[in-house]
Amino acid sequence: MNLKEVVVLGSGPAGLTAAIYTSRANLNPLVIEGEPSSTTDQPGGQLMLTTEIENFPGFLNGIMGPELMSTMRGQAERFGTEFVTAKATKVDLSSRPFKIWTGDPQEAEPTYSAKALIIATGARSLLLGLPSEIELLGHGVSTCATCDGFFFKGQEVAVVGGGDSALEEALFLAKFASKVIVVHRRKELRASKIMQERAFKNPKLEFQWDSVVDEIIGTESVSGLKIRDVNTGEKSVLPVTGLFVAIGHSPNTDLFKNQLEMNDAGYIITKLGTKTNIEGVFACGDVQDDTYRQAITAAGSGCMAAIDTERWLESQLD
Ligand code: NAP
């Protein structure tokens, strides 16, 4: 069995900060960093889908999300962190060392085992649940303006949502699109005041209040959206060629169901820092935080998880 002192699952700011700290503590961590498979689940986490980050301390003029993540990864590598580009497909936390599979979960032997496990698998974008949404992902429907915005140069697009993500997407899209319509199910935005101010000031942005998307029109590409006023029931068509869904996130915790304690929304419950209900298993970042969800808080909790892990491993030697 490929026994490791520490395995870190996930490579967003939480996982990479945990890796930097545990590698500097000579714990030779292995980071299972994910696979570049979809727009919502990739090495580097959600910041790979972000443009400029203006609120991560230490960068006077801001930094691009992917650049911040590649710098953090390099920093972890510098201290000896090992990376594997794969997704964990199964974990068994019923006894120590903990067992982790990255290939076929039916295999009898796990791919790795770990004395301590740090879970930093993050969260992913939520979708509206419309039948055509998945089929049209990558064909006019997107959860990532940074990835796909360029394709909508000179076109009219819609963004669904009223939080910071929706406005961030809308403002980014306004650089390419001729018009960006923010479709929000209420009359007030949930986004922070500064983002609202920027959005209201942008001449390319329009708001469709009290409205929901009932249907995406198109089979191989998007030619419009059927929307409905939630108060009057009145239906109309928005003639847009792109739909960006920015309605929040869900934690990546399927692997740990029935093994770790979670709240109703599926976020891992941590106590006394980053401890889970299983001794030796720690959780950090968005996978256990449905309140703050910032790069800096994720990084901070990754540091906490590393320190908690180091102390716990030391206590096992007594
Ligand atoms: P969020 O704050 O939870 O907002 C989600 C938005 O989507 C809400 O406006 C919600 O409407 C709407 N929504 C949810 N489900 C919907 C559905 N089924 N149909 C239509 N609309 C739906 O999520 P977020 O914008 O992703 O932000 C998450 C956290 O990250 C926040 O703390 C945010 O401040 C932070 N963030 C910060 C930045 C930044 O600082 N630059 C950027 C992005 C995110 P209701 O308002 O009616 O609930």
Describe this protein's structure.
The protein is an alpha/beta fold. The protein has two domains: 3-125 and 249-315, FAD/NAD(P)-binding domain; 141-245, FAD/NAD(P)-binding domain. The protein is built from seven helices and 19 strands. The strands form five sheets. Strands 1, 2, 5, 6, 7, 8 and 19 form a seven-stranded mixed sheet that branches. α1 (13-24) packs parallel to α2 (65-78), α1 (13-24) runs parallel beside α7 and α5 (164-173) packs parallel to α6. The protein is elongated. The relative contact order is 0.18. The structure holds NADP nicotinamide-adenine-dinucleotide phosphate. NADP nicotinamide-adenine-dinucleotide phosphate binds next to α5.
Bound molecules: NADP nicotinamide-adenine-dinucleotide phosphate
Number of strands: 19
Total individual domains: 2
- CATH fold assignment of the largest domain: FAD/NAD(P)-binding domain
Cα gyration radius (Å)? 21 Å
| Residues in β-strands, percent | 15-25%
Give the C-level CATH assignment of the largest domain.
Alpha Beta
Share of helix, binned:
10-25%
Q: Tell me the distance between the termini.
A: 25 Å
| Low-pLDDT segments | none
Work out the helix count.
Answer: 7
Q: What is the H level of CATH, i.e. the homologous superfamily of the largest domain?
A: FAD/NAD(P)-binding domain
The CATH architecture name of the largest domain reads 3-Layer(bba) Sandwich
Question: Could you say which overall geometry the principal axes of the C-alpha atoms support?
Answer: elongated
Helix and strand composition category: alpha/beta
Order of helices and strands: EHEEEHEEEEEHEHEHEHEEEEEEEH
